[in-house]
């Protein structure tokens, strides 16, 4: 693909990274979220990231990692809000639940970053389950299907 074609579709490299992450993550979650435990679906997302480690490691070079993880956090928050609206008709979400979502997404994003940057021995599936288990109680009550 030439530069002109690339910039027709994306304003910058980070826009491409966000698009790839969003498309692949949404496809995984939309396919699996209602069929299996939430933690297993999160593990599938982490497995996708791990299987494309070269792409994501280049995306997360020191100067760009904050941009990527900021997007990762925003995606996480928006996905929870979208699911609460879709599954339970909750819109708007009260301040306490917003806090729990934001708290959880900060933790999820940073634990994923730690897992990636330190080449952890733990499998993506094990990390996904731990991320689910760390959900605040009220948030977990909405996302405990398949458990």
Describe the fold and architecture.
The chain has 147 residues and is mostly helical. The protein has a single domain, classed as Tetracycline Repressor, domain 2 (Orthogonal Bundle), CATH 1.10.357. The chain has helices at 3-9, 13-32, 38-51, 53-59, 62-88, 95-117, 124-133, 137-142. The chain starts with a helix and ends in a 5-residue tail after the last helix. The relative contact order is 0.16. The mean pLDDT is 86.
- Radius of gyration, in Å, reads 16 Å
Largest sheet: none
CATH class assignment: Mainly Alpha
CATH architecture: Orthogonal Bundle
Name the poorly predicted regions: none
Helix content: over 70%
What would the average pLDDT be, to the nearest integer? 86
- Overall geometry comes to globular
Order of helices and strands: HHHHHHHH
Helical segment count: 8
Give the termini separation. Answer: 44 Å
Please identify the structural class as seen in this structure. mainly alpha
Tally of strands:
0
Could you name the CATH topology? Tetracycline Repressor, domain 2
User: CATH superfamily name?
Assistant: Tetracycline Repressor, domain 2
How many domains comprise the coordinates? 1
- Beta content: under 5%
